[in-house]
UniProtKB/TrEMBL annotation:
Organism: Methylorubrum salsuginis
PANTHER family: BLL6097 PROTEIN, SUCCINATE--HYDROXYMETHYLGLUTARATE COA-TRANSFERASE
Keywords of this entry: Transferase
InterPro entries on file: CoA-transferase_III_domain, CoA-Trfase_fam_III, CoA-Trfase_III_dom3_sf, CoA-Trfase_III_dom_1_sf
Matches recorded under SUPFAM superfamilies: CoA-transferase family III (CaiB/BaiF)
UniProt GO MF annotations: CoA-transferase activity
Pfam families assigned to the protein according to its UniProt record, in alphabetical order: CoA_transf_3
Protein name: Crotonobetainyl-CoA:carnitine CoA-transferase CaiB
Amino acid sequence: MGELPRSGPLAGLRVVELAHIMAGPVCGLMLGDMGAEVIKVEKIDGGDDTRRSVPPAIEGESAAYMMMNRGKRGISLDLKSEDGKAVLRRLLADADVLIENYRAGTMERLGLGYEVLKAEFPALIYCSLSGFGRSGPYAERAGFDLVAQGMSGLMSVTGEGPGRPPMKCGPPVTDITAGILAAMGVLAAYAHRLRTGEGQVVDTSLFEAGITLTYWQSAIALATGIAPGPMGSAHPLNAPYEAFETADGWITIGAANQTNWLRLLGVLGAEDLAGDPRFAANRDRMVNRSALAEALAPHFRRAPSADWLARLEVGGVPAGPVLDVLAMQADPQARAREMVVAVDHARAGRMETLGLPVKFSRTPGRVHGPAPLLGEHSRAILAEVGYDAGQIEDLIARGIVGETTA
């Protein structure tokens, strides 16, 4: 599919995205999939740095960029020039939301900080994403997912177990979570604006996003004064709740309550373990978690994964395969839920991308199209905000606005 008419609960909302790499673009992506029109404003000299996150590339276009920016329209601007700032102001005159994830002080140095824009656009929702937030002793620090994972406690609880090197979560979870939290914050601010007409700043960070992912571990630490450590695939509060090796791979077992524990023993043919005092209740199983895993492991190695998954489903025990990313993308549930969808890109052609993870019964959202080429929609966007053909040619000729065609 090419670009589709906007649909979803946010249809009619206009978002200007001054964001790059990941956290800010995730916020724009979520809002766009729910129907908002997202205009991505990129720097004129090369655009979003993710355009250079290669390999892989498809027909010369960064796969990473195309994933994070599908469904958006694009214009490239020289925001260091007064004419470029004037273009941005025209965009903001019709916009509901501005997203930015520049380093602290950048927008202010450009004369585009919130206090300045608020005077011109009092209803504007100004969404700021950063490494550590707009206040506090670390507000000036640059933010990266790896640093945020380390400082938020995530790396201290991720990995094979005690004594092993610290390990980050594979995906950039603080970037992605910050973008989702920002979208949630924008929607809350929009609800406030519908009641009062007032705009405001929405401010979140990678650091805070990482902290929110430690709810269970923080509960343990606050209650005991002891910082939890890494546990591999196991759960800090329930057992058995982890991955087990089978005859030909790995599966996950979620026997996280007494009913499922007893069901699991029946499927395994290990009913004798029900009478073992070490495993009588969840409290006992947590204290003796290593012994529990050792007692269960030989049973799972007797048969291949598919056999166990079939038996566990019949037995009512939550379980699943450990899929690689390609297998996940091919999974019939992922396809049925439209989590992998096709778009037609101006250069890359027909390609697949990830879909919207939130479904609406009355106002369904969707991926509305591919990612833009750098400045692909510059002319159309300028015309929409009142520039005539001669003015558009002049802005492009003087390098204030950039454009790219397929």
